[in-house]
Design a protein that fits this description.
Rossmann fold; 330 residues; 5-stranded parallel sheet; Aminopeptidase
């Protein structure tokens, strides 16, 4: 059985496997084909597969930028020792590499292989990679084959009643993801839905927001931001599909997670008191936060509920754990 672990870049186990890979490639091609050392700060994950604690297979995934475009994930150094081939280990490692890339916010994953490695080309085709014209450092190489696979956008919608701390939590989540090197963006749903008067039957301008999201989504993918955080109330489970469709791309609909933040009524009202001016708007907000909390509780459309009555960083960590956005872990 293969056990896959993330190891430090430059660890002895993958280094040993790389040396064996280079020797094999040199035998096939007669020379080493562009195997320069990776920059450690660009590496998303260095993965090693172990059988009975023996390093048996490895792959590295990193962010790379080609021809001035936004960074995309790049697979490098996939290798399985000869005596362990034919057991599906390469496919397993590629699955882990893609998962790490998705967690890191990649929108596409690219790789380069060679004309004398038909077994690798066959594997990559089988798991969804397409051959594209050679680019970047391989543009003029006659022995290179470049392949690409699109990854679905991941959308995290942070729901909750008024005063639950949706926008504040989104900011805290963004700060945590930034420290982990995760490519992401925050889009304020309310900002896309502000306009008066709203049309009949759409008091909160949901249609305007979803049309706006669909219009701007391609630009976020173009920037290589594969993880999108949207603070916005979700009362209708049908909205999950609308978010998925708004951020649909070459890899299909987005993967949508909805987390509802909760806090005691007095906590929510105190936050509203600090945020809103005295008068009719604050009175409306006090009534709305109570009514909306009951609506959201009855609807139950969320994937997880997170308490936000304490430290905002703790709440942000709980949200990330609830939806599996902790980072490029195996």
């Amino acid at each position: 059985m293969l056990t896959v672990r993330i190891v430090p870049h430059g660890d002895a186990d993958p280094t040993c496997l790389w040396e064996a890979m280079w020797a094999e490639l040199e035998e096939r091609y007669g020379f080493l084909r562009g195997l320069a050392q990776d920059e450690a700060d660009e590496v998303i994950a260095c993965l090693v597969g172990y059988v009975d604690d023996e390093p048996t297979a490895t792959v590295t995934v990193r962010f790379s930028s080609f021809d001035g475009a936004a960074p995309i994930a790049e697979v490098k150094r996939l290798y399985v020792v000869p005596e362990a081939r034919g057991r599906g280990y390469s496919r397993v490692l590629m699955g882990h590499a893609e998962n790490a890339a998705r967690r890191a916010g990649a929108t596409r994953i690219v790789l380069e292989t060679g004309t004398k490695q038909p077994e690798e080309v066959g594997l990559y085709r089988a798991i969804g990679y397409s051959v594209v014209p050679n680019f970047g450092p391989w543009a003029d190489s006659q022995e290179s084959i470049c392949m690409i696979k699109d990854l679905p956008t991941r959308v995290l919608v942070i729901s909750g009643s008024l005063g639950a701390g949706k926008s504040t939590a989104a900011g805290a989540i963004s700060a945590l993801l930034e420290t982990r090197g995760v490519r992401h963006a925050v889009i304020e749903g309310d900002a896309l839905a502000q306009g008066e008067p709203s049309p009949p039957g759409d008091f909160f301008n949901q249609e305007l927001m979803f049309r706006s999201l669909a219009a701007i989504a391609p630009f976020y993918r173009e920037r290589g931001w594969g993880n999108i955080i949207i603070p916005r109330v979700v009362e209708d489970d049908g909205d999950r599909k609308r978010y998925a469709d708004a951020f649909a791309g070459p890899a299909g609909p987005a993967e949508v997670s909805i987390v509802r933040l909760v806090a005691p009524e007095e906590t929510r009202k105190e936050r509203l008191r600090r945020r809103e001016p005295e008068g009719p708007w604050l009175d409306w907000a006090f009534t709305r936060t109570v009514d909306l909390e009951e609506v959201l509780e009855a609807a139950g459309v969320e994937d997880a509920i997170v308490d936000n009555d304490g430290n905002i960083r703790d709440a942000a960590l709980d949200v990330l754990e609830a939806v599996g956005w902790q980072g490029p872990a195996v």
